[in-house]
Fold this protein.
Amino acid sequence: MTTPRRWLFADQLGPHFLDAPDQPVLLLEATGVFRRRVFHRRKAHLILSALRHLAAELGDQALVVRSATYRAGLAEAGVSAAAPITVVDPTTHAARRFVRQLVDDGSVAQVLPARGFAIEEAQFEHWAAQGSASRLGRGRLLMEDFYRDVRRHHRLLLDADGRPEGGAWNYDAENREPPPKRVRTLADADGAKGLPEPWWPVEDDVDAGVRDDLDRMARDDGVRFVGDDGPRRFAVTRAEALTALDHFVTHRLEPFGTYEDAMLAGDPWMSHSMLSATMNLGLLHPVEAAQRAERAYRDGAVRLASVEGYVRQLVGWRDYVWHLYWHLGEDYRARNALQHTDDVPEWFAHLDPDGAVEAACLKDVLRGVREEGWVHHIPRLMVLANYALQRGWSPQQLTDWFHRVFVDGYDWVMVANVVGMSQHADGGVLATKPYWSGGAYIDRMSDYCGGCRYDPKKRLGEDACPFTAGYWAFTARHQELLAANPRTRRAVGGLHRLPDADAVVAQERERGSAAP
Ligand SMILES: Cc1cc2nc3c(=O)[nH]c(=O)nc-3n(C[C@H](O)[C@H](O)[C@H](O)COP(=O)(O)OP(=O)(O)OC[C@H]3O[C@@H](n4cnc5c(N)ncnc54)[C@H](O)[C@@H]3O)c2cc1C
Ligand code: SF4
């Protein structure tokens, strides 16, 4: 008996989404979504390139249909109750609803549990029900608890007695240093000397075809993109994915922990893996990447602190936000505990196309997003999202923006990261306090401020840093809430000691959401 055909969504492209290597496959290239939303040009390229590369690899094994919508594509593929397909549960609420309808009409014979994460959803629900919530007595699901259980489950970085390798679960005290001084790139720094650039793919005919099609869509079909086109940066095939992972672990993982939070204007990649887009296309499994990193530690090639720092992001944070997407339900995305309703301004939405932004950090980070569709975690959290939080922009508009302009942006990963982690719009489900900070943090963790027309120490006047002044304006706006939280109370005390607090608030009201 032949295995039924498996419909692979565009983020399910790795071998672990098939039950057998020769299983028949259905690939739908549904481009209608590009007409409905304005995506980064590089993101559209990446997704189409990945789909088409897999189609080319599979040859006759894959039935490939190009259509405007999934429904039209399935009809064209002849999927029906008489010729049903199977699917691995997709990654958005909307797609899951659609697939359930297809089960009802018989055209999907089986929906298998989601793949591509360290643990299954049922395991997470079990953990959430009986583990962390009762242990903490606050109903809060702590990432640290979750991460340790995932490590135990997969026996990652454990010693022979099941204890954490090296005696600690967490090496943050060794990690997360400011950038080295007086260097342009990490490769110039002691301890990371000669760090090579990330592995870059070589484009081929498939990429050329994608580029032509995207040009045509923009020219003839009224499709609009944001951001610049440019050479493909991320792996789109399984072979490329394995090469990129191997290159990262072998050549670039060592300084990862130390500098994972640092920013250098001359080095956008630092020692980050740049594997999120590939992982989110389903081409790598996070546990295989974590095991590969662990092997490098066991071989004595990479320090434990860096390997632990990477594994924590990969099977800790990544899985945690995935499971919270389902656990917290579809209404979670609409939360707006701080009642932030201002529109995301045009200069930000369009990635500072006219160079209107003068703030050196924000200017460079927006340039990175415009040119690459990618910047690392700290520019996302402490520059982009921090600015949005300080200015009171709508968390829902911001979520949509992050989803569309980042090459690794998907609904499941955005909601918890943006609504919860970065905008505190959930009122504290994910993080115990809002992540808002002034220019002092950016000055400590980057080399931006030296070349900026603003001064991170100034909160008032022509050269007042918009982040520093914005920090106080945010503190003033939410002082009641912040005073009630022991972790943020001090900021309110600091505000009340400022001799010029009213003037700073008035200045920032005047600045509003104009390009700083
Ligand atoms: C506001 C905001 C928005 C974000 N949006 C996305 C997104 O759309 N897609 C996305 O994959 N990540 C997102 N992240 C998480 C993180 O910034 C990126 O995963 C990371 O920067 C990708 O680069 P990298 O592969 O070099 O990661 P590395 O620094 O090398 O980290 C290793 C891996 O850990 C995983 N990871 C780390 N942190 C997170 C996290 N918070 N959530 C999910 N995965 C994580 C990623 O798979 C990443 O590849 C967001 C974070 C913030 C604060
Ligand atoms: S001074 Fe302020 S605006 Fe300028 S780079 Fe530093 S933090 Fe950014």
